[in-house]
Amino acid sequence: MPLVDVSPGVTLAYESVGDPGDPAVLLVVGFGAQLLSWHEDFCRALADRGRYVIRYDNRDCGLSTKFDDHPVDVGRFVTAVSSGDLPSALAMVPYRLQDMAADGLGLLTALGIERAHVVGASMGGMIAQTMAITQPDRVLTLTSMMSSTGENAYGQSSPEAQAVLFAPKPADRAGYIAAADRDLVWASKRYRDPAALRELAAHSYDRAYYPAGVGRQLGAMVLSGSRADALQELQVPTLVIHGLDDTLIDPSGGQRTADLVPGARLLLIPDMGHDRPRELWPEIIDAVAAHTS
Length: 293
Fold this sequence. Notes:
Elements (H helix, E strand, L loop, with lengths): L2 E5 L2 E8 L6 E5 L11 H8 L4 E5 L17 H9 L3 H7 L4 H14 L5 E6 L1 H12 L4 E7 L13 H8 L6 H7 L14 H15 L4 H11 L4 H5 L5 E6 L8 H9 L4 E5 L11 H11 L2
Parallel strand pairs: 3-4, 3-5, 5-6, 6-7, 7-8
Antiparallel strand pairs: 1-2, 2-4
């Protein structure tokens, strides 16, 4: 697994597939997810469309740098935010989405890539948006998938999905894999695939079980604020993809993103939840390939 230093104190693990001479597509993963969440077959199918595809672990996840010196108790953090005690919440979290965006751009720099198409899903969409906002000259196109704008009025989770998101997972391997079935609450209803969820959970657990990072990543999302004003000024060609079955980030999050970004194209996909079912890969890959052409 290649590792590369992207800034002082931060090393990212990444994988690539395709011809480095083809246009680069940087895939950004979501909250608590390893690069495995961009399935290898999905990456290869996109590479077969003439793209150099790069997937990586965000900081505090997978094989990338961990910020163990800054433990965050998710319960205490949520309580502080809910009660309006922002000074306490801010003091708990050592970085923001802007830092995570800088990591991804630093990876491109380390790989000798000046500009890339950036595709982010869920929290990865928020990071990708931030890349485009902070360094638009590095982002050829933006694809924001199953994500939102940081505004509280849009993209909210259902109570059931939120409960699953914040519920601690078992620490033992068998329990962790079995708990993956909970994610069906936000998955595509038509293409429910518990076996695929368990397979991803098993691979993730074996590769890098690290629950301590989720509190810091959650804090980065919550405390980075709204991107609405900046998105209204964005001049990067933007595609927004959202599943109509999504209960973790309501489709209003995607709709709002597309409404704000000038000239953005919105693709709402029926039967897609907060996941990428294999059955929908052709439609998603076609859309990304067309947008990045």
